[in-house]
Amino acid sequence: MFYNLAIYIYLLGVKIAALFSSKPSKMIKGHREVFKVLQQIDKNKKYIWFHAASLGEFEQGRPLIEYIRKRYPEYGILQTFFSPSGYEVRKDYKGADVVCYLPFDTPRNAKRFVKLANPCMAFFIKYEFWQNYLGELNSRNVPVYSVSSIFRKNQIFFRWYGRDYRKVLTKFEQLFVQNESSKKLLAKIGVTNVSVVGDTRFDRVIDIYNAAKELPLIGKFKGDSKTLVVGSSWEPDEDIILKYVNENPRLKLIIAPHVVTESHINDIISKLNCKCVRYTSADEHSVKESGCMIVDCYGLLSSIYRYGDMSYIGGGFGVGIHNVLEAAVYGIPVIFGPNNMKFREAQHLIENRGGFEIKNSDEFNGLMHKFLSEDAFLNESGAAAGSYVKDNSGALDLIMKEIKL
Predict the structure, then answer these.
(1) Phi, psi of 393 (to 5 degrees)
(2) In this structure, are strands 310-313 and 227-233 parallel, antiparallel, or unpaired?
(3) Which of 318, 315, 316, 306 is nearest to 382 (CA)?
């Protein structure tokens, strides 16, 4: 009763927010269209349902989707998202037969959705514990798996007031968790259908690494110079980095800002003393004359990291750092700001000496000087970053050993 009341209150809040903001407005509109989209389901085909809240969780589930797609083509794939930030980016994803939003977890929505989708199996990625959907799937004897989930003692399941809600965990056929501490926490509340497999994100970045594009213009820009690749930067990151680049003109800079707007790009250019070139307008002549390349488009960053000698991941002086694994997989050291405590990969990279936290420009300058003057330190740090990713891959194989298809 309390769970359903909370869902209805949440739904009301989103509807009110939709009157003033585009993101919740897109969500409400998308939810209205879900049941029409589900008419695309082929009644003569078995579907496997993957649900991810947003884009990051989708990337964690993607190795599973593509493995099943390749080896078991007889199954259809249904991919759902809760957030517009996932759906709007991946609504045309070719790895799925049907892509749509997942409506709010009311009893009526759950019953109607599961009846129309009629999945033979479901995977909920990371933090997705929808009580009514799970209950409806259980009532139809549909096995459900939790993938790359991680548990902490401050979560509701481990509080006295979460005793009823923790029953939702028993509705999973198996919980594939990231670490041993999650398994121990779950054991304390009697949940034992748990396997420690690690995080599928490591498998995903290795897939990205193997499929990385050759970018000849980036190669010509780099030449024989030491190159720093900056990914998803914000202004506080840029203020530190651009000042250093001005003082060290032999260093080449490739920067992919998080926000790609004309005003932001012009702001970056105005702060640099060297000649800049935008990726979308670059040619062989302009790249050779430039000290900075600005990546003014999306979709290339994961391939661009391969051209770096070291990397910087933005967001650590604000919202939180972005994906550190996409850079680390290339065997280059990763630098980031102080807001990284909630990111396990960043913490582990620091422990493995492949990642480096900086709190100010002095720390960044000192670290960069060491990278540029000590090849052994640069190479050892990069090797540590690459090894961390490779050593933690393999979750996909462990999961598939326990799945019955």
Answers:
(1) -85, 170
(2) parallel
(3) 306
Per the CB < 8 A criterion, the answer to whether 249 and 274 are in contact is: yes
Residue 354, helix vs strand vs coil: coil
Distance CA 171, CA 144 (A): 7
Tokens of 355: 């990642």
Residues 292 and 251: their CA atoms lie apart, in Å, by: 9
CA pair distance 121, 109, nearest whole angstrom: 19
Q: How many CB atoms lie within 10 A of CB 123?
A: 24
CA dist 389 and 115 (Å) reads 40
For residue 14, report the phi and psi dihedrals to the nearest 5 degrees: -65, -40
Place of tokens 């980031």: 336
Q: Which residues pair with 256 in a beta bridge?
A: 231
Comparing 183 with 88, which gets the higher pLDDT?
Answer: 183
Mean pLDDT of 14-22: 82
Say how many CA atoms lie within 13 Å of 285 toward its Cβ: 0
List of E strands, 265-350: 276-278, 292-294, 310-313, 334-336
Question: Which helix (H) or strand (E) element contains residue 99?
Answer: strand 98-101
C-alpha to C-alpha distance for 116 and 354, rounded to whole angstroms: 48
CB burial class (10 A; 0-12, 13-18, 19+) of residue 183? middle
Which is nearest to 304 in space by CA: 248, 405, 233? Answer: 233
Spatial separation of the C-alpha atoms in residues 63 and 207, rounded to whole Å:
8
User: CA 23 to CA 85: how far, in whole Å?
Assistant: 8
Query: DSSP class of residue 336?
Result: E
pLDDT for 64-85, tens place per residue? 999 999 999 999 999 999 988 8
Distance CA 33, CA 22 (A): 17
C-beta separation of 132 from 102 below 8 A: no
In the predicted model, is pLDDT for residue 22 greater than 90?
no
Q: DSSP label at 80?
A: E
**266 contact partners, CB below 8 Å, separation of at least 6:** none
In one-letter notation, the amino acid at residue 211 is: A
Please give the Cα distance from 19 to 67 (Å, whole number).
41
SS3 for 71?
helix
